[in-house]
From TrEMBL:
Coiled coil (UniProt feature): 59-86
Family per similarity comment: Belongs to the FtsL family.
Major subcellular site: membrane
Positions of region (Disordered): 1-24
Protein name, UniProt field: Cell division protein FtsL
Organism, scientific name: Thermolongibacillus altinsuensis
Gene: ftsL
InterPro entries per record: Cell_div_FtsL, FtsL/DivIC
Compositionally biased tracts (Basic residues): 9-24
């Protein structure tokens, strides 16, 4: 009976163990066309990214130049306004008359002609 019990236990252990089937690793094989397609896609993606970065850098540089030119224009406009105010101050009638008298000129009413802008 001892032998029969051992055989039953042995059969029982064999039934409890699940059969482990070795998994086969499938090796992925790419054809030449697939390899070329994949390689061309990588090259296109690389070219596109480089082009985009290059264009963005160019746009950044141009925007910087535009801002610098705008600042220069504002400074020149301010300088022009200051000079226009100075011209108006220097071209007053009283100042011109004082300068003329300083230089020894006299005012003759008969020779004066009024010119309007």
């Amino acid at each position: 009976m001892n032998n029969a019990a051992v055989q039953i236990q042995h059969k029982h252990k064999q039934q409890q163990k699940p059969k482990v089937t070795p998994k086969k690793k499938r090796k992925i094989r790419l054809t030449l066309g697939e390899k070329l397609l994949f390689f061309s896609f990588i090259l296109f993606a690389l070219y596109s990214s480089i082009t985009i970065v290059s264009n963005q850098f160019t746009i950044y540089e141009i925007n910087k130049e535009v801002q610098q030119l705008e600042v220069k224009i504002q400074e020149q406009e301010k300088h022009n306004r200051d000079l226009q105010v100075q011209v108006q101050e220097l071209s007053t009638y009283e100042r011109i008359l004082a300068k003329a008298k300083e230089l020894g000129l006299t005012l003759n009413e008969n020779n004066v002609k009024v010119v309007q802008d």
